[in-house]
Amino acid sequence: QVQLVQSGAEVKKPGASVKVSCKASGYSFSAYYMHWVRQAPGQGLEWMGRINPYSGATKYAQNFQDRVTLTRDTSISTAYMELSSLTSDDTAFYYCASGNDFGPTWLAPWGQGTLVTVSS
Amino acid sequence: EIMMTQSPATLSVSPGETATLSCRASQSITNNLAWYQQQPGQAPRLLIYEASTRATGIPARFSGGGSGTEFTLTISSLQSEDFAVYYCQQYSNWPETYTFGQGTKLEIK
Lengths: 120, 109
What we know:
The complex is a heterodimer.
Chain A: E1 3-6, E2 10-12, E3 18-25, E4 34-39, E5 46-51, E6 58-60, E7 68-73, E8 78-83, E9 92-98, E10 114-118
Parallel strand pairs in A: 2-10
Antiparallel strand pairs in A: 1-3, 3-8, 4-5, 4-9, 5-6, 7-8, 9-10
Chain B: E1 4-7, E2 10-13, E3 19-25, E4 33-38, E5 45-49, E6 53-54, E7 62-67, E8 70-75, E9 85-93, E10 96-100, E11 104-108
């Protein structure tokens, strides 16, 4: 079945970077945008950006424009999200989620989430 | 930027009854709207896309409606597993943007 499996929880110090992976299976990885969404503890969902796995083209939300980098490795059907200059405000669950076309669409399925904790 | 506003923030409804959740866009998004359900400790799950189309495997008691700027998610005959947080999300093409509402918590009355 269509599935997204993310890498495990991370603990980082302020100022560091984190890189989260998202491995896709059960469908053609290059066929749909891959999105990343953040959820701080007890808070709502915040769209961070997306990558076109076929071309590598990216679009980022303004709030993350300067600190996030989305990449992919099509040979292993895996997308990556790297967030730099971490602060305690970046402590959150990070989800990958597949789009359903090239272009803006709904998001499904979602990965299980990766908890990133930023603490000194 | 398109803003999405959900109401109410919390909705208390008894099992077996009907819940109606609202989502308003700051400008017209035609029918480019999705609804998600999130259970505690879980990832969001797609319920509805294109404002009114149920996703695969979603029970018929979930229905979506609206277009333009006003949208609703109706859940009839509420069951225990329906009590969760619900988010709406817009996806627009010109320019390409994605925005979530702040969520509605549906709790047992």
